[in-house]
Amino acid sequence: MTLELQTLKAKALAIHERLCAAYGCPIPYFHSLDPLSELISSLLSHRTRNADSGRAFKALRARYPDWDMLMAASAQEVEETIQGVTWPEQKAPRLQGVLRAIHERHGSLSLEFLKDMPVEEARAWLECIPGVGPKTSAAVLSFSTLRKAALPVDSHHHRVAVRTGLIARSVAVGPSHALLFALLPPEWDAQAVYDNHEVMMLHGQRCCFFSNPACERCAILDLCPTGQARVG
């Protein structure tokens, strides 16, 4: 391990511990959905407020008591059901395409078999499905009842990581997943990895804003070169 990587790992751990003290770890899981339902929920949430995607998910569940019914429905009907999310005209056929891909590859509409796979293998299986990227695959494994040690990175998490220097500004959200996960202690369990995502996300939402970050009250200001330059 290079000295630079050792330094980054130590910094990532220090940031995690500081933010956990600020936001209260362990953080309760916000979902207890089966992995297929979590996948659908995650796809609905793309570029959509949580309240709106939550309503759309409930509307889907009410209209289609099992996901086979959703797969067999007309795209127009599905689009009408999920009105309120961004781009429902794109998400309706995408949802159905994802379900068909799972059925074709696995023989049934279930992702429970992923529990027996190592995290990276399970993520690779999911990301072979068109429309499923690293954030979605990690969300399915972490947030669902599978409770695996996978690290999702959203825009808030990514912003905090960039500003604190854990990753370069040139690293996009997608590639950042592997880099940020590699900075976490390998022995961490699913709860600790989930906590890391949650506290980084919460810090981005509540302090490290996209515009006018509140650096003066930041719990990790001394670990953030961007904030120090701004305050100084």
Secondary structure blueprint with pairings:
Blueprint: H1 3-23, H2 35-45, H3 50-63, H4 67-72, H5 75-81, H6 88-106, H7 119-127, H8 134-143, H9 155-163, H10 173-182, H11 190-206, H12 225-231
Helix pairs in contact: 1-11, 2-3, 2-8, 5-6, 7-8, 9-11
Protein name: Fe-S cluster assembly protein HesB
Cofactor: [4Fe-4S] cluster
GO molecular function: hydrolase activity, acting on glycosyl bonds; iron-sulfur cluster binding; metal ion binding
Structural overview:
With 232 residues, the chain is mainly α. The chain folds into two domains: 106 residues, Orthogonal Bundle (Endonuclease Iii, domain 2); 109 residues, Endonuclease III, domain 1, CATH 1.10.340. Helix 2 packs across helix 8 and helix 9 crosses helix 11. The longest helix has 21 residues. The chain is globular and about 60 Å long. This is Fe-S cluster assembly protein HesB. GO terms for molecular function: hydrolase activity, acting on glycosyl bonds; iron-sulfur cluster binding; metal ion binding. Its cofactor is [4Fe-4S] cluster. Belongs to the Nth/MutY family.
Descriptive keywords:
single chain, 232 residues, mainly alpha, Endonuclease Iii, domain 2, Endonuclease III, domain 1, 2 domains, 60% helix, metal-binding
In short:
By secondary structure, this protein is mainly alpha-helical.
Highest-level CATH class of the largest domain: Mainly Alpha
Q: What is the CATH superfamily label of the largest domain?
A: Hypothetical protein, domain 2
Mean of pLDDT: 96
Helix content: 55-70%
Q: Give Rg in angstroms.
A: 19 Å
* Outline type: globular
**Total separate domains:** 2
Q: Would you count the extended β strands for me?
A: 0
CATH architecture label of the largest domain? Orthogonal Bundle
Q: Specify the biggest β-sheet.
A: none
CATH topology of the largest domain: Endonuclease III, domain 1
The run of helices and strands is HHHHHHHHHHHH
